[in-house]
Amino acid sequence: MDYFIELFFGGLTRGSIYALIALGYTMVYGIIGLINFAHGEIYMIGAFTSFIVATVLSIYGFPVLAIVVIAGLAAAVWSASYGFTIEKLAYRPLRKAPRLAPLISAIGMSIFLQNYVLLAQTSDFLPFPALIPEFAFMEPVAHIVGSSDLVILVTTALVMIGLTFLIKFTKIGKAMRATAQDKTMAVLVGINVDRVISATFIIGSALAAIGGLLIASHIGQINFYIGFIAGIKAFTAAVLGGIGSIPGAVLGSLVLGLTESFATGYVSSDYEDVFAFSLLVLILIFKPSGLLGKAETKKV
Amino acid sequence: MFPLKELKRSALIALWFAFLTFPIMVIKVDPIERTVEWRWDNMFFIALGSFVISILSKVYLIRKERRAGRKKGNRSITEPFMQRILREPRFLYPLSLAVLVFALSFPYLFSTYQTNIMTTALMYVVLGLGLNIVVGVAGLLDLGYVAFYAVGAYSYALLNMHFNMGFWAVLPIGGLFAAFLGILLGFPVLRLRGDYLAIVTLGFGEIIRLILENWNDFSQGPSGIANIARPGFFGMDMSFAGGITYIYYLVVGLVIVTIFVVNRLQNSRLGRAWLALREDEIACQAMGIDKTKTKLVAFSLGAFWAGLVGVIFAAKTTFVNPASFTFLESAIILSIVVLGGMGSIVGVIFGALILILMPEYLRALSEYRMLAFGGILVVMMVFRPEGLISNVRRSYQFKKQSSGQASDRS
Amino acid sequence: MSEAILKVSGLTKNFGGIKAIDNVDLDIRPGEIVALIGPNGAGKTTFFNCLTGIYTPSAGDIRLCNPKSGLKTKLNGMKPNKITEKGMARTFQNIRLFPTMSVLENVMIGRHCRTKAFILGAIFRNPATRREEEEIIEMSYDILKKIGLHKEVNEEARNLSYGAQRRLEIGRALATEPFLLLLDEPAAGMNPKETEALVRLIRQICSEGHSILLIEHDMKLVMSLSDRIFVMDYGKKIAQGTPEEVRSNPAVIKAYLGEEVDA
Questions:
Q1: Read out DSSP for A257-296?
Q2: Are residues B22 and B140 in the same domain?
Q3: Of the residues A129, B152, B315, C40, which has the fewest C-beta atoms closer than 10 A?
Q4: Number of domains in chain B
Q5: What is the pLDDT of residues B235-294, one digit of tens each?
Q6: Are residues A136 and A129 in contact, defined by beta-carbon separation less than 8 angstroms?
Q7: B173 and B301 housed in the same domain
Q8: CATH number, domain at B332?
């Protein structure tokens, strides 16, 4: 039973991280209908930025709490800047191009960023400092649920609440929902669509950066290639939940996280990624609208 | 004259990129030794580089706008030089002949090493032409193309290992296996919208690679299969250099056959249907084109070619392992098609030669090769989505009055 | 009177909870020009989309009867390309040509479902394929002559004027050899001179043995061209009859309240 609970919490943790990344996919897709293939790389850059900042600070002897806060902020700020810049450079000029053009551009961006980090930093796995301390009160259950699992779950939950609030009640959130529904109408009622799209990229990227920081400190190592797999999985999660739907992204992520956790725990860990990819292929073939998404009706 | 406002804008862009790349480009930490290296010179280069690029791209855009303004008046003058050569048989035929003579005498003019590199480049030409049918002509973004390449390579490796089958026997089998797999995969997924199709094919490619990596009993896992037989030539034994020359000619032959076949396909009822499908699926169906069947044919034909090249790859390197069939390989082939010009045969040939040969000869650049591939995809999409050489539209000539006397040239 | 070539009965199409088409009957007899009119949003284009297989009807029955062979087919749930093969072709309200293909190629695409050459034929170009290809070109050129675009064979379709694009759509549909041609607002955006030429073209097409069902807002065109008119409003059929009958029908006048119905 302990094993089951351990896998369950492992799956939830995994799912939470996927959710933080999947939200970026789903928000961008909801607004401009683009699969932002480079989003996984944004997450990777978030992890790298927090790694660099945290290591520098710890070398200069900052206290742990300050390191966590500053590294988290730095990751969010820089990832958001990357997201903003990528949209301006690689997607905005292609807004009116055929649908495949921005996707190819996004794939190019993804390859570019991977190799940019590879060349500027290293191809080796880097040890990530353990930023999350072992809480004393967690000790009795530590063999099942680690402290970092708890932190990840709580952080994700807080972020979700914050995001829901942002989208439901703030001005920019309302503008985002309006733009997602009908871009032309949004322009007509005076919404600056370009700014809304930029904001979407910034928010999505910052969320991915937080995900990057959390997973890096949870797993304890990073390299330039982590974005690719994580990106694909988060995308799978977003599609599973129904791409374009924010609650769908969270639900899909949790389902994917749990599936992977149980599958690797009870079946085999060799095929961990095969499960995710197969799930992706199967959903897209049999239910492309996902669990909570709406089917697209074609206009003729 | 370059306006001051633009200089200011470029300076701001430079500042922004200096900020953006600061943590990744400037700081390098060693977490074991606990040392920090500050690489300020990188920041300087980034700022300078982005300043220059920003100005250049602005100049390009201004000129492009001016050209577009002038173009309205007179279109024929602006027909690019390359297109004119490709359109005129009296230029095209001698040129093709010269290229063919050069290609055939290549092993005698250059070293074995060079020949080997050229063989690789030509294999990518064939891969590019195969993927071009799928992506360039039919407009189906296939990101898992490398899976079919892997199927070809492993077909030969396994059939050779277990049943001692020869290269020539497996060549068609490898192609057919890949095509069959293409049909099997294509049947459910080709109904999907373009971007979903791209992701599904990507997932499929990764699944194939992961299976090859993990199913040790079948594929010998990550260590791969070694000692695959080289192709034989009527049972003759060949020296190492002779073998390389032989494979070179084999690939040249395959390139010629591929160009011939792809050209014929493009100018056929089927090729027209592919083009139309790329432009408007609903209109296509309303014109009586079976969408699924037409796509499936394109998809499996592309796969067939990847399978053929896969068999040759296994025979050339005498060794296969899953590491040769990653997503990046698919991305390289896609870059070839996109850089060359989607749908254009000559473009794809140029694309393959540029992208494969350049990093080989400019060793200093080879580190930046993948970076460049990524960059090329973005830059081409933003500035020149039609590629280096855009597809030449076939034109038809009709004699006045009588309608029946149709003659055409391509 | 000969048998109807298209018989629609009780056609209904729901989108979620909205009934875009509600229990509509319609029939077309050989050689007729029939118009389908109604205010914007009445469900006319949805009706076309149901007929041509782009939408699957929620209920009802669509039957096509080939006047030459007498072959009857039920169209419900059939794929669009199969329906075209059965002899019913259409044009689109928002022009859907193949923009970067040449004018001639656009028409040649229409020949697709009446020809056979496949992979091997394309590669080896055997005599049968070559003959077929020549026939495709020949017939497409003849169609271009009929619609007056034979001087623009090699022009890209997107470079044509609006009116010419509409005519090209008709030409493309004709290339599929339909006995019933569905035209979705063929005169939209045309100037009076172009419209006049269009009327002549439609009459000519009709006299060559194609029946026609058209959606149109230009009442002058509708009244002068059609043998019978069906009127839809809010997804329902509210009237049918000859132009004179429809013109004096109170329900029609009410539906068009504010819009003038004159001939």
A1: HHHHHHHHHHT-STTHHHHHHHHHHHHHHH-TTTTTPPPP
A2: no
A3: C40
A4: 2
A5: 666 677 778 888 899 999 999 999 999 999 988 999 999 999 988 889 999 999 999 999
A6: no
A7: yes
A8: 1.10.3470
Q: Which residues of chain A make contact with C45, given a CB cutoff of 8 A?
A: 300
- Residue B77 counted as domain residue: no
B31 part of a folded domain: yes
Residues B237 and B374 in one domain: yes
Q: Which residue has the tokens 């000559």?
A: B346
Residues of C in contact with B396 (CB under 8 A): 102, 104, 137, 153-154
Residue A61 lies in domain = 2-286
CB C99 to CB B279 under 8 A? yes
Rounded CA gap, B53 and B67, in Å? 21
- B139 shares a domain with B52: no
Give the whole-angstrom CA distance, residue B43 versus residue B19: 8
- Name subunits touching C (3+ CB pairs < 8 A): A, B
Question: Which whole-number Å values give the CA distances from C187 to A196, A198, C163, C175, C202, in the listed order?
Answer: 39, 42, 8, 20, 11
C-alpha of B214 from chain center: 28
| The pairing of beta strand B395-398 with beta strand B406-409 | antiparallel
Same domain for B114 and B213, yes or no, is yes
Q: Which 106-165 residues of chain C touch chain B by CB within 8 A?
A: 108-115, 117-119, 121-123, 125, 129, 132-134, 136-138, 141-142, 145, 150, 153-154, 156
Which residues numbered 149-208 in A keep a CB inside 8 Å of some CB on B? none
| Confidence at residue B74, expressed as pLDDT on a 0 to 100 scale | 46
Contact assignment for A111 to B24 by CB distance below 8 Å? no
Q: Are residues B267 and B204 in the same domain?
A: yes
CATH of the domain at A101: 1.10.3470
Q: How many inter-chain contacts (A to B, CB under 8 Å) are there?
A: 168
> What ipTM was estimated for this complex?
0.88
For range A42-62, the mean pLDDT: 91
Confirm if A267 and B214 have CB atoms less than 8 A apart: no
A135 domain residue, yes or no: yes
User: In this structure, is residue A82 part of a structural domain?
Assistant: yes
Judging contacts by C-beta atoms under 8 Å, the chain B residues touching residue A127 are 31-32
Tell me if chain C has a CB within 8 Å of the CB of B247: no
Among A56, A58, A86, A111, most B C-beta atoms within 10 A, so best to mutate, is A111
Name, of B325-329, B363-367, C256-260, the range with top average pLDDT: B325-329
A297 contacts on C by Cβ (under 8 Å): 15
In this complex, do A105 and B381 lie within 8 Å of one another by their Cβ atoms? yes
Cβ within 8 Å of residue C4, ≥6 positions away: C27, C28, C29, C65
- Residue B406: predicted pLDDT: 45
Is residue A38 one of the residues assigned to a domain? yes
B156 shares a domain with B52: no
Of B43, B70, B97, at which residue does a domain stop? B70
With H, G, I as helix, E, B as strand and everything else as coil, classify residue C77: coil
Between A46-50, B125-129, B329-333, B364-368, the lowest mean confidence (pLDDT) is in: B364-368
- B400 assigned to some structural domain: no
Are B49 and B166 in a shared domain?
A: no
Of B200, B207, B335, the CB nearest to A274: B207
Rg, Å, chain C Cα set:
19
B10 is a domain residue: yes
Tell me which of A277, A299, A300 to substitute to probe the interface with B (most B C-beta atoms closer than 10 Å).
A277
Domain residues for the domain of B239 are 110-383
Say if the Cβ atoms of C153 and B396 lie within 8 Å.
Answer: yes
Question: Which has the closest alpha carbon to C165: C181, C187, C142?
Answer: C187
